[in-house]
Amino acid sequence: MDQIGIRNGYLTERNELSYVSEMQRIIAQLEIYDQAWYVREKDYADSPEEKHHSRHAKKLVEEMLDILEYWEESSTAECFPIDQIDELEKEYGIVRKHHWK
């Protein structure tokens, strides 16, 4: 994700689409790996939430959310990354408090 910022520069409304498309590519790759990790981990799940996604993927998503929140705080973009943050939190069952909610 650091490379996205290096390639595109400061997140603004002007380059928001580049950020969105690159993040969608990363998330698609994560989902593929998550399926493989899930198969390996599903017998060791401790709770129902862990039965949908692997622990490894959930940890990576939490790190991605930290970066997305930093981008949100320091950007002038209209919707991204707020929409992306909300979608990832919902999909992976992660609860965080935000100033826009």
Give a verbal description of the structure.
- The chain has 101 residues and is mainly α.
- Helix content is 63%, strand content 0%.
- The chain starts with a helix and ends in a 9-residue tail after the last helix.
> Poorly predicted ranges (pLDDT <50, ≥5 residues)?
none
Using the CA coordinates, give the radius of gyration: 15 Å
Please count the beta strands (DSSP E, at least 2 residues each): 0
Estimate percent helicity.
55-70%
Question: DSSP strand (E) fraction?
Answer: under 5%
Total count of helical runs of at least 4 residues? 4
Which descriptor suits the 3D outline? Answer: elongated
Ends apart, CA distance between termini: 24 Å
Structural class by sheet pairing and helices = mainly alpha
Major sheet characteristics: none
Q: Please, what is the average pLDDT?
A: 86
- SSE arrangement, N to C: HHHH
Task: Give the helix/strand layout.
Layout: H1 2-8, H2 16-41, H3 55-74, H4 82-92
Describe the structure using short key phrases:
mainly alpha
Q: How would you summarize this macromolecular structure in one to three sentences?
A:
With 101 residues, the protein is mostly helical. Helix content is 63%, strand content 0%. The two termini are 24 Å apart.
